[in-house]
Amino acid sequence: MAEGDIEEFIEQNRHLSELVDTYRGISESEKHWKARRAFLFRNINDFEDPHIDQLLALSMVWANNVFLGCRYSPDLLEKVNEMAEGIVVDDAPVFKTRDEIMKNQKR
């Protein structure tokens, strides 16, 4: 969903907006929350109430990978990246592995 699409979705689904806003972590920055919130709105209709925790976990996996550089199994990353397709994060950090850093220093 693009930014405008999210705002339109929120207007049409005020109850979901209020629900999703309760999932914000106390330590999440505005930038982090805005992206994770877009992830939640994009996928919330695919997860029924007893499975909402799974969506929340997947949103954290995606956000942790994007913002913190956390690594997960390739299959899991593929799944969350597909779920996040179209979500643009401006100025996302770029992370290098230890091997990449060591390779550059040997040059």
Descriptors for this entry?
elongated, 64% helix, 6 helices, mainly alpha, 107 residues
Largest sheet composition: none
Helix segment tally? 6
Q: Kindly provide the radius of gyration, computed on alpha-carbon positions and rounded to a whole number of angstroms.
A: 16 Å
Structural class: mainly alpha
The overall pLDDT average reads 85
Organism: Salvelinus namaycush (Lake trout)
Pfam families: XTBD
Domain XRN2-binding (XTBD): 20-107
Family: Belongs to the CARF family.
Question: What's the structural blueprint in terms of helices and strands?
Answer:
Layout: H1 3-12, H2 14-21, H3 30-43, H4 52-68, H5 74-83, H6 98-106
Helix pairs in contact: 1-2, 3-4
Description:
The chain is an all-alpha fold. It is 64% helix and 0% strand. It has helices at residues 3-12, 14-21, 30-43, 52-68, 74-83, 98-106. α1 (3-12) crosses α2 (14-21) and α3 (30-43) crosses α4 (52-68). The radius of gyration is 16 Å and the shape is elongated. The relative contact order is 0.11. The mean pLDDT is 85.
